[in-house]
Amino acid sequence: MNNEKIKSAPNFIKNIIEEDLKSGKHTHIVTRFPPEPNGYLHIGHAKAICINFGLAAEFNGECNLRFDDTNPEKENAEFVNSIQEDIKWLGFQWHDKAKYASDYFDQLYDFALFFINNGLAYVCDLDANQMKQYRGTYTEDGVNSPNRNRSVAENLELFNNMKLGKYADGSKTLRLKIDMSSPNINLRDPVIYRIKRAHHIRTGDKWCIYPMYDYTHCISDALESITHSCCSLEFEDHRPLYDWIVAHLYAAKLLPCHPQQIEFSRLELLYTVTSKRKLNQLIQEKVVSGWNDPRLPTISGMRRRGYTANGIKLFAQRCGVSKSPNIIDFEFLENAIREELENEAIRVMAVIKPLKITLINFDATTKSKSVPFHQHQALHGERELTLTKEIYIEQSDFMERPIENWQRLAPGKEIRLRHSYIIKCEQVIKNNANEIIELKCSLDPLTLGANPQGRKVKGVIHWVSCTLALPVKLRMYDRLFTTARPHGEISDFNHNSLVEINALIEPDATKVQPETRLQFERIGYFIADRYDSKPLAPIFNKIVDLKNTWLEKNK
RNA sequence: AGGGGAGUCGCCAAGUGGUAAGGCAUCGGAUUUUGAUUCCGACAUUCGUAGGUUCGAUCCCUACUUCCCCUGCCA
User: Fold this and answer.
1) Residue A49 host element (H or E)
2) Residue A417: what pLDDT?
3) One of A74, A163, A202, A266 is an active-site residue; which one?
4) Please, what is the average pLDDT of chain A?
5) With 0-12 CB in 10 A as exposed, 13-18 as middle and 19+ as buried, what is A149?
6) Cα A238 vs. chain centroid, distance in angstroms?
7) Which residues are CB-neighbours of A184 under 8 A, at least 6 positions away?
8) Which of A45, A321, A423, A428 suits a disulfide with A441, CB 3.0-4.6 Å?
9) CA A105, A223, A216, A202 torsion-angle sign
10) Which backbone phi and psi does A407 adopt, to 5 degrees?
11) Distance A309 CA to B44 C1' (A)
């Protein structure tokens, strides 16, 4: 993809960064991509990745990868690995080594002591239910915790005991002392530490207390000298808390900088779902095969489906960055993918619903010709294509009584066989049930690689040799849900989202390596499945259909 | 209802007190051994609504309206 294209689109975050660079607030920027390792990355993450890594690249800065691993109950190593693999596959490289919020647990603990010592945090005995009662509502102020005025010494001792494991899970929390009557509920004495005896993927059983996201994230950003912390819109309400925490620590010279949180709107797609909960449900109920099912908008799913990293990046770039709510049609993604595939995919022929043709005046047993794998991209090379007396064409490429503007085969009509001769339908053979079972055609021997004299022949159709073509399995995919805005219910699931069919393909096309993308001419783009393909026996996943304006109009 | 955001072409999205970029889609037309690709052309007298300020407003002010987010010891 042309990098100029990426640089040309302005957006409000770039404007902020340009301003900061111009004013001298920053001389160099650092961003971060901070996933929680509790699931696989999806197209929404791809947008965030493109924004954060893209910004760093464009302004010659750096982008960190930091796992937000503060809730050990939900996180595991499989997700840590898949996330790294997906980011690398997209073509991005994080700065330095991958970082983890858990790298900062010791510092986070010390900072908690700082807040306690300054009378800005206290240990609270309220349980979850009570805390909810005390928190108030949107319209009613909250009520101070009875433990809000504990002495520093007592808080210190209690917090130390929490860390030592002297209390049961959930029985105590450490809270910031801010304002129980704030209209922003995030500021009503937020919990920053909870007791949770869970095994952590990196710190094991060292801790039984874990810091909360709001407390951890801003401090981690500052510790990593992040300049611009870009996240999605739902964190707007958290920014005052982010700033509150960082400001105190920064003023005390405990933090090197005060990063700026900037929020953008998430990506939403029609006909699919991206929430981890909903994706997980589809997987649990086995309506899809796993996180990398080609129908899923997960990065690994899209990879397996055959989407290219550049196509996904092009899509993200075209979506832009803003704060306005947006819902994008799945076709918008498919268009970007198709655009990237146009030059990349080699062309070969396959027939799905065969109709036999006998070339009545074909006077050899075989006739071979070297033809290009791509009409406009010579670098893809050529292969030997062999014509035989009997071939198959697509049933849909013949009409006994053709409709208007029919550019394919019909009785008495001429069309070109792709990369081969012009043929003319001389006779239609039917069985007892009056079904067309074969066509007898003549070929014009002067039209191999040449246009016919004195007449113009318009249609071109694909074909395979009856004797040489090889059978192969095609997995035809369609949208995940039948409704435009699915909530993830199985009732909306598109049960035709995967249909396996058989096809006959030209022999050279069976030699492709897994993950090779190709176009079956006039059918669509396909990829040899990276997991299920065997040597000389690929299984092809349909990536996306070819655009077909004629078919659209004649539906 | 309290707080925080957002409303510019079918879908995204720039823009700014000086008279509406761009992309995708769509519609014409040309080229084409993929009805694909490519190429040319068309596509917002108008910026949620109503007032106001101004020589001039999508941009500033006021009111209204619609949509999204927030009452986890999730992130």
Assistant:
1) helix A43-58
2) 98
3) A266
4) 96
5) exposed
6) 27
7) A237, A240, A241
8) A423
9) negative
10) -105, 20
11) 34
Cα angle A156-A160-A162, degrees, rounded to a multiple of 5: 120
Give the pair of three-digit tokens for residue A481.
């849900």
d(CA A480, CA A271): 6
Distance A458 CA to B27 C1' (A): 24
- Asked if residue A371 lies in contact with residue A382, where contact means CB atoms within 8 angstroms, the answer is yes
How many Cα atoms are found within 13 Å in the side-chain-facing hemisphere of A494?
Answer: 20
Confidence of residue A555 (pLDDT cuts 50, 70, 90): low
As a whole number, mean pLDDT of residues A140-165 equals 98
Percent of chain A predicted with pLDDT > 90: 94
Residue A116 CA to residue A437 CA, distance in Å, equals 85
Closest CA to A186 of A121, A136, A126: A136
Query: Smallest CA–C1' separation from A135: which nucleotide?
Result: B71
Distance separating alpha carbons of residues A410 and A393, to the nearest angstrom: 13
Length A23 CA → B59 C1' (Å): 24
Q: Are A112 and A156 in contact (CB under 8 A)?
A: no
Amino acid occupying residue A229: S
Contact between A56 and A87 (Cβ < 8 Å): no
Answer yes or no: A389 catalytic. Answer: no
Name the amino acid, one letter, at A521. E
pTM for this one? 0.95
Cα separation of A377 and A372, whole Å? 8
* β-bridge mates for residue A477, sequence order: A498
Return all residues near A82 (Cβ < 8 A) that are at least 6 apart: A40, A41, A291, A300
> The sheet that has A470-477: what strands, in order across it?
A346-348, A517-520, A524-528, A539-545, A470-477, A498-505, A350-351
Q: Which helix (H) or strand (E) holds A156?
A: helix A152-164
What Rg do the C-alpha atoms of chain A give, in angstroms?
A: 31
CA–CA separation, A225 and A230 (whole Å): 14
Annotation marks residue A276 as catalytic: yes
Question: What would the two tokens of residue A222 be?
Answer: 């500052």
pLDDT in tens, A23-41: 999 999 999 999 999 999 9
Give A67-133 as a DSSP string.
Answer: E----TTT--HHHHHHHHHHHHHHT---SSS-EEGGGGHHHHHHHHHHHHHTTSEEEE---HHHHHH
Residue A13 — pLDDT band, cuts 50, 70, 90? very high
In three-state secondary structure terms, A2 is: coil
Nucleotides of B under 7 A from a protein CB: 1-8, 11-15, 21-27, 33-38, 67-75
Handedness of CA A188, A190, A195, A200 (dihedral sign): positive
Two tokens, residue A333: 């993604």
The DSSP secondary-structure symbol of A402 reads P
Cβ neighbours of residue A550 closer than 8 Å, sequence gap 6 or more: none
C-beta of residue A244 within 8 angstroms of C-beta of residue A187: yes
| A234 among known catalytic residues | no
